[in-house]
Design brief:
Layout (H helix, E strand, L loop, with lengths): L2 H19 L8 H18 L12 E2 L16 H8 L7 E3 L12 E4 L2 E7 L5 E6 L3 E3 L2 E3 L4 E9 L2 E10 L4 E4 H4 L13 H9 E2 L15 E2 L1 E2 L3 H5 L3 H6 L3 H9 L15 H9 L5 E3 L2 H7 L15 E3 L2 H5 L10 H4 L12 H5 L3 H4 L30 H6 L20 H5 L4 E3 L2 E3 L18 H5 L5 H12 L13 H8 L2 H10 L3 H7 L4 H11 L3 H15 L14 H9 L11
Parallel strand pairs: 1-12
Antiparallel strand pairs: 2-7, 3-4, 4-5, 5-6, 7-8, 8-9, 9-10, 11-13, 14-15, 16-17
Length: about 575
């Protein structure tokens, strides 16, 4: 409230109060009282803080096609609203201001050979100045869990990403190129929030692009991933439940409510499609419609994905008539067709036997392990049921099934059946293609056994698996260079970063001995051409240094000459992991 507004309000209020308290015999025209109260109301109303309109080119927050925003849900669903509010889905996209921007202000930032500085004005708006260059207002942020990126106007309603991000793990700003697997020396891709990010980083996002894609009048129902992203537009639901008596009756009854979608009550395929609308690599079936209204007109939670988009695979991308993307197929998928980019788990899960052959309650769904409301926001794993319990609810196995000590890391179902072979955000993530170790992983991508048994060769794994199947004579495993060393030094960039991460994994170090990895990690941290590989290798080297040194079960000797020789045959093709 301004000082002038406060003064007017106080004086008007006093005038009204004095008029009310005057003796009955004193003249006090009723008109004076009415005017006084009116002045007080106007003054307070004028002085009340207001929400300023979004700056030019920021996405407009507007209702669309029955969407009403999460605020309409809070009064009837307070616990769900509270649990959602704690998630990183809510803060996926935010208006940029002093409260939401995590990067430090008034600190020099170097990126792409330019110095940037972020600052805030007295209203809390955040600005960025490039030196030399103009002052731009930071309009929105994306991300708040691992990294946060910043967007400014690119003109004509479009938003472009600044070339740096804030890395929460290190509490510092780094160049965007250093945060992702991107070829060194290659110009960064031109990214537009209005088309690249809007479908998954906002609720009911509509690009509203012109036919030449040069001008946008972008709108969203809500920034971030809100209630209606998973439950569908809530306008009809809110309208129906204005009457508390009817609302109470419906809650006590057995009938379902057709005005809203509860993913927990959907069949597994449709429930998973709710997550898959964002956690998949896909392409709009109606590209022209997407540029106009995103998926607002073509998809609602509770529906199949297929009518609105094509879920990508190597076969789809090989079709001459199919969609085209600006990333190499080998950067997206392993040779067996499994997606290698984290955040796209739907592509992997739908290839799992648990999804393809499961039926009814035995068909796997995202909700088999994850929950939006009943979980730790860090990994969103269900509190009421462990992942191991989710597996054994369908699979009854003998106690010695894993061939690992009961309760050990190797005894966990995910250790063998969901190895960390996908990558995003400077870390390895478990593949969501649930499979058996001997059916894949020996033809390109890292395999589950070697990701834990870092000191062993690929031939050792093949022999061990053959012995388990009863197709080996039980002889000793052949010696060889550890597969982890081969992957770290000779693989492509996306493989190398996975192996660098594995070498810092506590369970892998316990199984493989700790200490011998340091020489390999030092070479990668000092010499790998990709900044993100160097970073992850250095991080793992620090983990090795703080782990109790222990000899590996088998003698491991990878000397400097062998390291240099392996590095000479490194796969140096350009790789881009499009997260």
């Amino acid at each position: 409230m301004s000082l002038l507004g406060l003064s007017i309000a106080v004086l008007a209020g006093l005038w009204a109060l004095v008029s009310i308290l005057r003796p009955d015999d004193a003249p006090a025209p009723r008109a004076a009282l009415v005017v006084a109260m009116a002045i007080a109301a106007i003054a307070f109303g004028a002085a009340r803080p207001t929400t300023s309109p979004p700056p030019d080119d920021a996405p407009r927050v507007l209702p669309a096609a029955g969407y009403v925003g999460s605020g309409a849900c809070a009064s009837c669903h307070p616990s769900e609203y509270a649990s959602w509010s704690k998630t990183f889905h809510r803060t996926m996209t935010q208006r940029a201001d002093k409260a939401t921007v995590l990067a430090p202000l008034e600190t020099a930032i170097e990126a792409e050979g330019i110095r940037y500085t972020l600052s805030a004005d007295t209203d809390g708006a955040v600005w960025v100045r490039a030196d030399p260059g103009a002052l731009d207002r930071v309009l929105i942020t994306t991300g708040s869990h691992h990294m946060q990126g910043y967007w400014v106007t690119a003109g004509r309603g479009a938003l472009r990403m600044l070339p740096f991000v804030f890395a929460r793990e290190d509490r510092k700003v780094i160049a965007r190129r250093d945060a992702f697997v991107e070829p060194p020396g290659v110009p960064q891709r031109d990214v537009r929030w209005n088309s690249n990010c809007i479908a998954c980083h906002a609720t009911a996002g509509q690009p509203r692009a012109t036919s030449d894609h040069l001008h946008y009048e972008t709108s969203v129902t809500e920034l971030g991933i809100a209630c209606e992203a998973c439950h569908g537009p809530g306008g009809s639901h809110v309208e129906r439940h204005h009457d508390p008596i009817e609302r109470f009756a419906l809650r006590r009854g057995a009938a379902t409510d057709p005005t809203i979608v509860n993913p927990a009550r959907l069949p597994a395929d449709k429930a998973s499609a709710v997550c898959g609308q964002c956690h998949s690599y896909s392409y709009p079936s109606d590209e022209r419609g997407f540029w106009r209204s995103g998926y607002v007109e073509s998809f609602r939670p509770g529906q199949e994905l297929a009518p609105s988009r094509v879920v990508l695979s190597p076969a789809v991308l090989a079709d001459p008539e199919g969609p085209k993307v600006d990333v190499e197929v080998d950067d997206l998928f392993w040779p067996d067709g499994t997606v290698r980019v984290a955040g796209r788990e739907y592509n992997a899960m739908i290839l799992s036997a648990c999804f393809l052959r499961g039926e009814g309650p035995r068909k796997i769904a995202c909700g088999s392990c994850h929950s939006m409301h009943e979980s730790d926001p860090d990994d969103m794993l269900r509190r009421d049921r462990s992942v191991q319990r989710a597996c054994v609810s369908c699979h009854s196995m003998p106690e010695d099934h894993s061939r690992h000590a009961p309760g050990s890391p190797g005894d966990a179902c995910v250790a063998c059946h969901m190895p960390k072979t996908s990558y995003a955000l400077r870390t390895a993530i478990r593949s969501h293609r649930i499979d058996v170790p001997d059916s894949r992983g020996l033809a390109g991508e890292p395999n589950a056994c070697n990701l834990c048994h870092l000191d062993q060769s690929r031939a050792w794994v093949a022999t061990a698996l053959a012995r388990r199947r009863g197709t080996s004579d039980g002889g000793p495993p052949p010696p060889g260079t550890p597969e982890s060393a081969m992957g770290l030094l000779t693989g492509d960039a996306a493989e190398r970063v996975l192996w660098a991460d594995a070498m810092g994994d506590a369970d892998a170090l316990a199984a493989s001995g700790a200490g011998w990895e340091a020489r390999l990690l030092t070479y990668a941290a000092d010499h790998d051409p990709y900044a993100v590989v160097r970073y992850v290798a250095a991080r793992s080297r620090s983990q090795v240094a703080t782990t109790t040194q222990r000899e590996p079960p088998y003698a491991v000797e990878v000397g400097d000459d062998q390291i240099t020789a392996l590095a000479r045959i490194r796969d140096d093709r350009d790789v881009t992991v499009a997260e």
